[in-house]
Design a protein that fits this description.
Largest sheet: 3 strands, antiparallel
Distance between the termini: 97 Å
Number of helices: 8
Order of helices and strands: EHHEEHHHEEHHH
Shape: elongated
Strand order of the largest sheet: 1-3-2
Radius of gyration: 36 Å
Helix content: 40-55%
Number of domains: 2
Oligomer: single chain
């Protein structure tokens, strides 16, 4: 589990950029994702200068680092111009919509959640790259505003109930078929010798002595 760096209390605040609700979609996970995306765009030696404090990006420099201000300030300011269009990644959409991973996979598979493409990254400590679907923030906002998650969950519940009903019907039909085969097999064996008295006309044969 990653740990967040402590902010140097003596570092000078050079700039700050509040993240708007349109950018974060009301999610702290999304806010941190934006921060990580912007930090990754900075040159390696400047990444420790950028911080996030209560959904506000801050640029803090220690004494003697004034020459770095314009470089970092310019990169962050430019990146934030279109930050609302930054694709939403899986952990962010789950937090924004308050959905489970299983629901995300199911709704993505059947097309209710619309993929905006894929992204491939290499996580620290993993040998292989991982590829995952990302989502258009406007689509995510539309799903949120229309409360489609509630609608989809009701649809899924109705589908699950129908599937259970059909499964129960099929099971009942199989039991009836097995029971019917058993009855037919029993009838195919015919009457035994002990049941001759139940046959029509048997008494006449016995009286005439034809069976002696």
């Amino acid at each position: 589990m990653s740990t967040r760096r402590k902010i140097n209390a003596t570092a000078k605040l050079i700039g700050e950029w509040p993240l708007t609700p349109a950018a974060t979609l009301g999610s702290s996970v999304r806010a941190r994702g934006i921060f990580l995306e912007l930090r990754a765009r900075l040159p390696m030696e400047f990444r420790k200068l950028l911080h996030i404090e209560s959904r506000v990006l801050t640029l803090r420099l220690s004494e003697g680092a004034e020459n770095d201000v314009q470089v970092v300030f310019g990169i962050v300011s430019k990146a934030l111009q279109n930050i609302e269009d930054l694709p939403v990644i899986p952990r962010e959409i789950e937090d924004i919509l308050t959905i489970s991973t299983a629901e995300r996979h199911r709704w993505l598979k059947d097309g209710r959640l619309q993929s905006a493409g894929t992204k491939t990254v290499k996580l620290r400590g993993r040998a292989r790259n991982i590829t995952f679907h990302v989502f258009d923030p406007q689509h995510v906002e539309d799903v949120l505003d229309r409360d489609l998650v509630t609608v989809w969950r009701e649809q899924d519940a109705a589908t699950a109930a129908e599937n259970r009903r059909r499964a129960a019907g099929k099971a009942a039909m199989k039991r009836a078929q097995r029971s019917g085969r058993g009855t037919a097999a029993s009838a195919g064996r015919g009457p035994d010798e002990n049941s001759h008295s139940s046959l029509r006309g048997w008494e006449d044969f016995e009286n005439d002595g034809l069976l002696r």
